[in-house]
Amino acid sequence: MSGGGDPEWVHRTGPELHPDPSRVLARLFLPGQELMSSGTSRAAAVIDRILALDEQTATAVLADTVSRFADRHHDLLGTFRAHFSLVAHRIAGAAELSATRRDLLGAYFTQEYALEAAALFNPSLVAHPDQAGLADGELRFVMSLRAVGEGHVSSIEFRTGVLGGAGGPRLDAPDPHPSTGTVAPVWLSSDQRAAPPPGDRAEPARDATYWVRYDADRPLSARVVFPTAAVESNGIEDARFVRFTGGDRPTWHATYTAYDGTSVAPRLLTTEDFVTFESRRQEGPSAKDKGMALFPRKVGGRYLALTRWDRESLGLTSSTDAVRWGASTTLTRPGRPWELVQLGQCGSPVETDAGWLVLTHGVGPMRTYGIGAMLLDLEDPTRVLGSLQAPFLTPTAQERDGYVPNVVYSCGGLVHAGQLVLPYGCSDAVVRFALVDLGPLLARLQGRGE
């Protein structure tokens, strides 16, 4: 499996996703430098210059800006007005300004951000909450993606599509006008909502809970989860979505890594409809570093999660509330040549009749990544029933080159029609799919087959 091509039960297929620099957000722009000689904010100086324009010039500049950018965004004038409201406290008599002047000020404090200009990778796949209107044997899915833009800042994007029929997964065309939605922060505690303080630099507390809500009338692919809390100011990375069952209705959870430019911390994203999301921190001895992934249901009355708490081994932890996690039990440590640098998981476990199927990633010579698998007991997931001795997926010659070379990596797949449908990132440059025949894979994990 490690060097002679794919096993016969692994089928690489289309479609492919590539980074698209034309997918841009209209983000708040604030001049970052201060005029040290006077102690005056650059924002204040920019405002003064805009206010000094005569009305005719202001009208012409606004009209030209709208004509050049309106087709690249959903409700561009609405964005200008929202951004004006964030800097209005700096302007004496802001309420008396003309609508044109207010919109123009908003335009000057807006920038385009190409959210996937640098990379698009590390997907996860879950069943869509809406399965209406499909043919027999079809399944609609949601795929999350890690997008990287200017400054190596990561965010979460979505795509939708359908499984079933010939030709592999069918992806819907993404909406051309992505949006970051409306954020409702929590400023003091996880059970208290409060209005944010005024000002253009307001942000939630460093690791606060917050909510993001999107326009339900717009496609899911228009929704972008962008860094909000200070703990994730430099990116939200590698969301591992899982459809969680056992309550009154299914819930979708995603563990992800928050990065502030210096340190990382695990957080949990939760939604019931992919319209409103809650983000909250994870706590406890196992909630550190990268690599948490929730099980799709409780086991023994407790939430379970895979961890890489020691940065190189695969462990198991539990929680009563999916917030505070206890110490980890180590399931396996690096021991095979393809995983001697480190190992971890590639998404949440998949429940099968044979046990919990866990996709693993290993890092070997030349920082080459491969994807393998192990099987855990359904009732006692601390029991390892079997594991592959070598990865079943490694980079092909066509997948080796990219932003980070020699990598294949996934944040989770799902089972459909007897196959594990696995989206995976190739060297952080393109996303592809592999269809893995479940029967032969489980047979090998149970010590049967070649």
Automatic annotation (TrEMBL):
Keywords: Glycosyltransferase, Hydrolase, Transferase
Transmembrane segments: none
Pfam families: Glyco_hydro_130
UniProt GO molecular function: hydrolase activity
Membership in a protein family: Belongs to the glycosyl hydrolase 130 family.
PANTHER family: BLL5143 PROTEIN (PTHR34106:SF4), GLYCOSIDASE (PTHR34106)
Name of protein: Glycoside hydrolase family 130 protein
